[in-house]
Amino acid sequence: MGSTAEAVVIGGGVMGCSIIYNLAARGLTNSVLLERDLLGSGSTGRSSGVVRMHYSNEVHAHMAWQSLDIFQNFDQIIGGDCGLTQTGFLIFTGDEDLPAFHANVAMQQECGIQTSIISREEAQEIAPGFYLDDCAAIAYEPVSGYADPSGTAAAYSARARDMGATVMLQSPATGIEVAGGKVVAVTTRDRRIETPAVVVATGPWSRRFLLQHGIDLPLEATRHEVIHLRRPMDKLPYHPGGADIANLVYFRPESTDLTLVGNGNMEDVVEDPELFASRPTQRFIQDVWTRLARRIPVMAEAEYTTGYAGLYTSTPDSHPIMDRVEGIDGLYICTGFSGHGFKLSPMVGVLMAELMLDGKATTIDISTLRMSRFREGKLNRPRYGFKVLV
Ligand SMILES: Cc1cc2nc3c(=O)[nH]c(=O)nc-3n(C[C@H](O)[C@H](O)[C@H](O)COP(=O)(O)OP(=O)(O)OC[C@H]3O[C@@H](n4cnc5c(N)ncnc54)[C@H](O)[C@@H]3O)c2cc1C
Questions:
Q1: φ, ψ for residue 185 (rounded to 5)?
Q2: Is 339 in the pocket of ligand 1 (CB under 6 A)?
Q3: How many angstroms separate the Cα of 229 from the Cα of each of 16, 59, 178, 266, 298?
Q4: What are the CA-CA distances from residue 172 to residues 36, 165, 193, 235, 345 (Å)?
Q5: Interatomic CA distance for residues 307 and 278, integer angstroms
Q6: In the chain, ranges of CATH 3.50.50.60 domains
Q7: Stated pTM of the model
Q8: For the chain, give me the number of helices (H) and strands (E)?
Q9: Can you say whether residue 330 is alpha, beta or left, with left for phi > 0 and alpha for psi between -120 and 50 degrees?
Q10: Residue 264 φ/ψ region, left for φ over 0, alpha for ψ in the -120 to 50 degree band, beta for the rest
Q11: Ligand 1 atom closest to residue 250's alpha carbon, by position in its atom list
Q12: Which of 65, 177, 184, 264 is most deeply packed, by most CB within 10 A?
């Protein structure tokens, strides 16, 4: 069966859904999203959904801050519910990372982000029961929190469909046809869609899919675990979200009495994104729980409820690739968001639409996310060893 589309987006994670929505909002309503399984069935559906602003580089800080504005006004701007819950967010550091920490918070403030370094006494008011004596500095973001990654993807996709886009589930793209240096079509098992523009937003599947088309990028699928602990509610009814650089652990409240805990640094490379152990290991549970309890001692009395693992799409500098492919007109790549992409997803769609329709992303300079940086040896430099903070 054949058809035509103004653009085809491959991958129905939060990035692909944000992109197809933003293309439709900019007038490209005859576009198609192909998803091999179900929306959010990749990294998006396993995401912890943390929405915080603490980054060590301007490109991510701007993307996170401008995305927060969209999350906060999601129903008016996009339509639907992204599940934003503004718990406030604390970032703790020890002596080792102190100079970088101060520089990063100053940079974030210059970007307009609502963040400041607060005293231990102020932090104790915000987070009663936390152990803070070891903290060299603490930053606080009062408007950060978490949102619903699958719900956000579904909302973007629904609005794109309302505007005329087609979203095809259980429809893996099998290939991209190129002729005369230009994209001409995308194929699935039973369909050929003629199109001049294709975005590859295939998350952990990207390396393999791109290799098939002769594009060799240093992308790895890496496995990361998350657990949910039931809090002793009489002692800790509530707490804000947090990223603890000293103990390499992040956490946030989940529903009424649970605390979601992740690490992000303990990772295993996965050869085949179809095959990975989806349950957490005993080793991880013990390790992450012990480190959480260093910051929140009463969590030693918590009860394990459940856990799962998901895949990051990791690059050597933990920065994504958002670019056009040199030498193939109409081919774009949007992948490699490691463990911090969800919070950027609203702006990722805006910027990819600018790149495709205006020839350049203008709202935020994304040149540091170009794919040629690996070949040029010009990698971005994350300032922390804590991968989820980049
Ligand atoms: C455990 C975990 C915790 C995380 N926590 C956070 C967090 O707290 N905050 C944050 O900001 N980020 C977090 N992230 C990162 C964030 O979830 C990801 O960066 C984001 O979801 C990536 O979205 P994506 O659309 O690029 O990829 P995905 O969600 O993986 O989507 C890619 C899609 O492409 C589809 N696909 C693949 N191949 C094909 C094909 N050939 N044809 C059609 N479809 C195809 C897949 O089925 C998949 O649905 C976390 C990630 C994980 C795994």
A1: -165, 160
A2: yes
A3: 32, 34, 50, 19, 12
A4: 4, 17, 13, 49, 22
A5: 9
A6: 2-47+149-219+317-376
A7: 0.97
A8: 10, 21
A9: left
A10: left
A11: 8
A12: 264
Residue nearest to atom 14 of ligand 1 (CA): 339
Q: Are 92 and 386 in contact (CB under 8 A)?
A: no
Over residues 184-226, the pLDDT tens digits come to 999 999 999 999 999 999 999 999 999 999 999 999 999 999 9
- Find, among 230, 237, 278, the residue nearest to 258 by Cα: 230
Atom of ligand 1 nearest to the CA of 311: 53
CATH for the stretch 89-143+221-314: 3.30.9.10
Contacts of 306 (CB under 8 A, 6+ apart): 227, 228
Locate CATH 3.30.9.10 in the chain.
Answer: 89-143+221-314
Q: Which CATH class is domain 2-47+149-219+317-376?
A: alpha beta
Q: Is 37 in the pocket of ligand 1 (CB under 6 A)?
A: yes
